[in-house]
Amino acid sequence: ELILMTASVANMALMGGNVDFISSGPSVVGAIARGAPLKFVFLCSSRPMHWLYAKPEIKTLKEIKGKKIGVSSVGSAAHFLVQEILRRHGMDPARDVTILGVGTTANRYAALQSGTIEATNLTPPFNFKAQESGLRELVAYVKEEYLVEPGGAIVVRDQLFQSDPLLMQKVIRGTLKGLLHINQNRASTVPILARLMKIQENLAARVYDLVLPGLTANGTISSEMQKKVLEFVLKVQGTKEPVAVEKVYDFTPVRKIRADLEAKKWQPAP
Q: Is the pTM of this model over 0.85?
């Protein structure tokens, strides 16, 4: 059962045992740094799949000063990323702009069009819609080397490793097979993407080509990238206490599953 939640609610739901898995990103890192017994066991990407769009009269990022920026929720991954972008361009996120929690991408897109906010981060296909409607792209997050983010994650409570390892393995195995299929089969993935996103296949093909370079090959990231993501997230969240990568990530299950699939010569169907 898939339940739509904001990142903060999802974190609490997982820690409280109301759900078994969540797909939150950077906000989980902060929770782990504060002692939450959670682990990342799978990652679809390590780059943020967001694009910052603004009203057409805002031609550069500098011109966003004094304006209202919408994010999904205050404290979310999108909030942290916007703050880092602003700092990189010499602005103080707390004083130079107003950051508002607006909700889903659809809500943010509508708020941007109506003028309730002057800029927001958008994900596919809303970035394409924004482009077609004359809104201006200011930042393509996926192209910015300094922006990293654990995306498409599977996060579990530590106790699940002992209480129900079979359940965890099944979820990881299914997700890994899906990721391998996406990486290797454009032709059959695009129609599925179009159906799930309720968009035309030609637009789904554009979404696929845009996000494919940011996907992981097998649900894991290297130890170097683990450190980079962790350091970045802790920095933008203002967490000063060091956190060991072993407290955040455990890719042992997905590596074993991948080895098992390779031993069985499993390949995604075309």
A: no
